[in-house]
Amino acid sequence: MTARPDPRGRVPLTLGVPDGVDEEGIQRLVHGFYDAVRQDDVIGPVFGRAIADEAWPVHLAKMCDFWSSVLLKTRRYEGRPLAPHLRLPDLSDAHFARWLGLFAETARRTFDAEAAEIVIAYAERIANSFRLSRAMHAGEDTMHLRPIAAPPASR
């Protein structure tokens, strides 16, 4: 799938199933990403408090289902992904930015450049949707929220 970039040249306007993304790639993405998350000083402790060591295999399988549903439209994921994020009291924009950074690094290692940017665009939309929802649920003024984006690929 070739995506048409937005006027800023960054995020595709229409996201579909990216060429070169398959179940094996999604498994590498999810497992590689969460390996990095668990070692990260910024978001590792948040995940460590939310997911017990013995619960990680189930979480990883659920995240593979989630990303398969998002990227390949398989509908394997059954759940409400926002709810657990609303229960975490200490999430900030710094956490979302770090999540996006690690996710983008992993996506760029896992997929070719075009597919990685589409996968990252999905993650950016999800992160910004969660940020907005968290702020609204907390009764915060959401007018100041500006979208965050993954850092560009290093050259």
From TrEMBL:
Protein name: Hemoglobin
Species of the source: Kaistia geumhonensis
Cross-referenced SUPFAM superfamilies: Globin-like
Xref: Gene3D superfamilies: Globins (1.10.490.10)
